[in-house]
Amino acid sequence: MRRILATAAMLGLVLSGAAVASAAPSAAAPAIVWGACKNNPALTGRKAECGYLSVPLDHAKPNGKRIQLAVSRIRHTVPAAKYQGVMLVNPGGPGAPGLSLPTLGGFVPGGGGGAYDWIGFDPRGVGSSRPALTCDSDYFAPGRPADVPTTTAIENAWRKKARNYAADCAAAGGDLLEHLRTTDTVRDMDLLRIALGTQKINFYGFSYGTYLAQVYATLFPQRVRRMVLDGSVDPSRVWYDSNLDQDIAFERSMNVFFAWVAKYDRLYHLGTSATAVEKLFYQRKAQLTKKPIRGFGASELTDVFLQAGYYVFGWEAIAGAFSAWVGDGDLADLRDLYAASNPTDKGADNGYAMYVATMCTDARWPTSWKTWRRDNRRVYAKAPFETWGNAWFNAPCLTWPARPGTPVTVDGRDTPPILLISETLDAATPYPGSLEVRRRFPRAVLVEGVGGSTHAGSLFGGATCIDNTVAEYLATGELPTRVKATTSDKRCAPVAQPDPTTSEARRADDPLRLELRKLLAPR
Question: What is the CATH number of domain 4-132+181-232+416-492?
C-alpha cells in the first residue's frame, strides 16, 4: 500500500465526565523535559514546546535499551474550567512525522481547538525521533525501471532493487527493525499518555493514524475519551490485501481527475472527455517506457499523477505540468513535481524506510513471487494505473529481514462513541474500510463526503459540513444519530474540486492551510 497518509490528532482527560486541568505523572512515570522547538517555524510561531520521551526499544523488556521519541505541544487557550485534555495527532504513513501537526488545532471551526493541548510526535524510527531509520537515500532517484513489467528484464530489475533495499535496511536498522510494528507505537502512545499525566486520551488520526487508533482502542479501551478517525484503514485487510483493494480504488479516483482535466480543456488542451485525457496519459507513458527523457520515465510520470488520486489539492499543478509537456515539449514542471515529492538528500528515505519496516512486520506477506505476480496481473487487468507501481513500492516485504507479527483483532465494543470520516471515492483508504470500522465500533458514527475523492481531508480541506461536525463532537461529545443500516450516518459535501480560474487568489488567502496541506501531502 502506498503511504496511507493524510492528517491527524489525539488525547484527553476526564473523570466522571468532568475535564481535569492537569495531572502530574507519578514518580515512576516517564518524563518529558519541555523546551523551545528549534528549527521549526510552524511550531515556534505558535508558541509550541518540544521535548523527548524515553521509551523501551522492546516493550517486553522495560528495563532494557531505550530510544527517544520527539514530542511537541501547543497548549490550550481556554480557562481551566473549560479544558478538555490533551489531543494526540498522527498524520498517517506509516512513517510520516507528526511533530508539526499540533497546528491542526487551529483549524477547528469556532476556535474549538483551544480547549485541548495538541500533542504531536514523531513515531519511533521517524523524523526527529532517535534513532531514525534510513537505508538508501537515493532509492527514488529518477531513472528507475518502468513500473509495468512488460519484460522479464524489467521485472527482475525491480525485484533486485527491492531486495537490495531490504538488505540495506537490515544493515542500517539492526535490532530496531524487530520493534517497528503498529503495536510498538501504540504502546509508546500509552507511555506518552502517562508522561502527560492524563488518564484518558483524545485522538485525531488520519489514514494509517486511524489504524493506530483502532489498535489503541482495542488494547486500552478504558483509556479512550474521544477519537476522530479520518480515512479509516480496513482492519480485516492488513496489509497485502489492502494494497490490492487500493489499486482498484485509485483507478476510480484517477478517472475523477481525468474528468476534471477534460472539464477545463480550454485551459489545458488535453482532451474534452475523461477517456481522451486518460488515453493521452497512457500514450505519453508508453513513450517514456520505450525511451525515458534524461532519467524521467514511466514510473516517475505515474508517481506525479498519483498525487491527484490522493487529494484534489494540486490538481492544477499536475494538469498544467502535463499540458506544458504535451503542448511545448517542456518536461521541467513534471520533473520538479516529482523531485518535490521524492527528495534524495541524506536521510530522505526515512519515511519510506519506516513505511516498509512497519508494513512488512505488522503481518505476514506472501514470500513467493509467483503469488505476487499472479495477484497483481489479475488486478492490473482491471486497474492498470497504479497496480504495478504499488506492488514495487511494497516489494521489499518479499525479503524483509525482520520477523512478521500477527495483527491485533480490532474490537471496539468497549470504546466510547467515536467519529469516523470518509469520502466516497477515497483511494488510499477505500470507503468500505470505514464501514468495517463502523461495524466493529458499535457506538461509532460515520460522516461521508459524498462523491468526493480526497483522502482524509478534514479540517485542512475546507469541507464545512464535515468540519462543523468535528467541531461539535470535540466541543460537546455529541455525534449525529447512528442509523441501523450498514451505511454512513451523515452525508456531507466533500472537499471541493478546485476551479483553476480562481485558485491563485484562494491560495494567497490562506497560507497556513496551504502549509498544512504541503506537510501532509503523500511522498
Answer: 3.40.50
